What we know:
The protein has one helix at residues 2-25; strands at 30-36, 43-49, 55-58, 63-65, 80-87, 90-97, 103-107, 110-114. The chain has 125 residues and is of the alpha+beta class. A hairpin with a 5-residue loop joins strand 2 (43-49) and strand 3 (55-58). The longest helix is centred in the N-terminal third of the chain and has 24 residues, at 2-25.
Amino acid sequence: MVSWLWKYGLLLGWLIIAPVSWASESIGRYQVYTASSVKEGKPIAIKLDTFTGDSWFFNGDYWQKMKETGAKNNYKQPSYLLSITDSKGGLVIFRFSTVNGSSWSYSDNGWGYIHNEAPKQEEPN
Length: 125
């Protein structure tokens, strides 16, 4: 009985959650992402332009532009996503291009490009 309830409860849960997930994949020009940090103890909200990758955080009064440290591509369709994760050191914010797979992380210095592989080190002679 418990196995049956678990299996069909999981299926029912998936049916309830799936439309929400599908709706978020069909994104428009702007998306708002929210998260809460255990370390800082306060919620944040970030607005993302999914065409250009430009982003703003809500400072309590208005949307303030997040600092860019390099170049990114502009597209004619939704192409950027954000991911926000809480960690011991605070929130970790990633931006990802669905077109070319580029990614960035946000720090005090602004958006920093994440290289696909570590730089090669020279072998000692």
